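pasting for the record
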Amino acid sequence: MALNKSMHPRNRYKDKPPDFTYLASKYPDFQQHVHTSLTGRPVVNFKEPEAVRALTCTLLKEDFGLTIEIPLERLIPTVPLRLNYIHWVEDLIDGQKQPRRGIDIGTGASCIYPLLGATMNGWYFLATEVDDICFNYATKNVEQNNLSDLIKVVKVPQKTLLMDALKEETEIVYDFCMCNPPFFANQLEAKGVNSRNSRRPPPSSVNTGGVTEIMAEGGELEFVKRIIHDSLQLKKRLRWYSCMLGKKCSLAPLKEELRKQGVPKVAHTEFCQGRTMRWALAWSFCDDVIVPSPPNKKRKLEKMRKPLSFTLTEAGLKELQAKASAIGCAAHSPVDSVTALLEKNLTDLRVLHKRVPCRKQEQSLFLTAVENTWIHGRQKRREQKRQLRELPRAPHCAKTSSETAVASTAPATTSASTQTSNSSEDSSENKAASAPELAGQQQTDSGASSSEKSKHNIPGEQKEVVEHVPDEDVDMDSGSVEHFLFKCLLNVMPEESDVVIEMHWVEGHNKDLMNQLCTYLKNTLLKSVTKS
């Protein structure tokens, strides 16, 4: 479970992530979904609905004493993220231990918000649901936890939000309402087609949920607008109206809608849980409510400054040292061996890198990524090989390619004729060229050296750019490359018997790309250990 310091300050999981090893030893149903990673750490596969359900039920039992049942074909909530919303509602209503009344619009099969609110704070809840399966499970979950005195689950007609649910309770004033609206407008959007930035990595967890839970006409934007329309009629029947949003782009138009309708009090925040981000919007017609402060921008800066890191344990370092020795690295320490392997991988990926001064017994590389070559690398390599097989070649080409690969462990003495034949090869053939060979490479018949190409970023020559450039050839400061995706500092450090790799963000367009590269390098090194 990926957690970070941007969670709500009162979230119990903020500084103390769940201990999977302990939970697995205590709960057999959860134990079968806990596996040991290559680094020796217990992990859960969040792509498996059964694993996500087991984790949710285990956390609710261990930390809140709640026993629930959730069908796999309905939405399975994550506990830390739901706790963020509960704590924010506490901030809205200014007091978490006083008797309060709330409405959960579309409570779901888990009925998680009423169960948490009632258990933690003694809140009274009216929980509405339109789906028969969700209604039956929610009712059962309330009854088996003996919370029927605090939680009332009601079945409402399709497309009903607040108006119909409050027809029979004309005298009751509620302190708040909560809602997880259906995020998507249709099936394509639910699958990520035309709704997810192509540069973003895929979701880390499985998307479960029934049709009424994940899809609605017009998506979450129109759904929340309907709640706004109801609130304009109910006004002070609820002190706070709130919704959680799945898309940041929904926040601005909804705030504009509230402004047009003359709503006097509006608040918003964001919920962070690892790679998962959610946004929340709340509004009120009451003059005496206090609007919480918006998200602190400093938290975003701290998140950007926090390095990405992974650890290579002592058990695998000997194999990595042997692998580094096999490619010609005369390193004496695990740090040097790991650095050499990282340099080779970066060269293969065509990521510009250069060693920079650092503390004793450590190694530091300054990286400049010009193009994204680490996503779907296996498919790209297969496609390149297929294209190379289909292209007609002269007999001497294969010999030239093999000679280029062999030369990766020795200084280059490449002649002009050999360089000319190399220029006709696919860019994948040039990946094997090492730094010594490239340092001695003479100018090509076009009159421009490879280092000059990397400096000037010549259009059409990107795949031929020298990626591992010696210090004396190229100054790798921030101005040496005009167009780049990001720049970062990669540190390789000893930590007792292990080796830690850290990647510090410097500048660029998208930190997710650095995260992807970090994951790629980590998996490549770990696979090397596994294979050997």
